[in-house]
Amino acid sequence: MSWPAIKLDQKKSVSKLTSLGDTGFIPNIVLLKPDGTMVSNKRNEVIKKLSELSGS
Length: 56
What we know:
It contains two helices and two strands; from the N terminus they run αββα. It is an alpha+beta fold. The protein has one domain (11-54).
């Protein structure tokens, strides 16, 4: 992946992420705001938003 990812052995980070709500199954793509709130966990929405943010 060319974006930040949480490895499965980072249990504290995985627990924090799954506590946000329905994050789906691992592996999954989730877009978070800088404050840690979830923008989306729906693959198509996340990819669309990443494209918008990157100007592609």
